[in-house]
Design a protein that fits this description.
- The structure is a single chain.
- The chain is an alpha+beta fold.
- The chain has one domain.
- It has five helices and seven strands.
- β3 and β4 form a beta hairpin.
- α2 crosses α5.
- The N and C termini lie far apart (about 70 Å).
- Pfam families: NosL.
- It comes from Candidatus Accumulibacter adjunctus.
Length: about 160
Amino acid sequence: MSSRLVHWLVAGALWLAASLALASELPPKPGERDLCPVCGMLVSRYPHWIAVVAYRDGRAHFFDGAKDLFKYLGNLPRHAPGRSTADIASLWVTEYYGLSRIDARRAFYVIGSDVPGPMGHEFVPFATRADAEEFLREHRGRRMVTFGEATAELAARLDKGVFD
């Protein structure tokens, strides 16, 4: 084999490996019939709010908003019998401004704003603290929280309109 052919084969193999690695980091997309395991709503009807739990075995659960994602994570035995947090490969939410999927663990969330989600008060996700702070001011948000502060208990309080 010529050195030029070997060069192209190696370059192609590296490109393929990089593409596969990148593809495995992208969130799966819900189908038309996927239901939120917390509330039972059709997730595909709310593309601007979709949240995703992707499991190590390739399966995923989809949510109509981050609020139901946090309820789910707070009670896995109820919503996903047989699953544990160790089974989770990645968590995704839909960023409010860019509408792209971002890592839920790195997002900033605004609660108590004048922007309702599919089921009322919602955790509105942002990729940057600056975007969250801007949204907080412009949409009369009550406060910003991080992933660690966004608990199932706080999600339940949002349902009641309690933001503190």
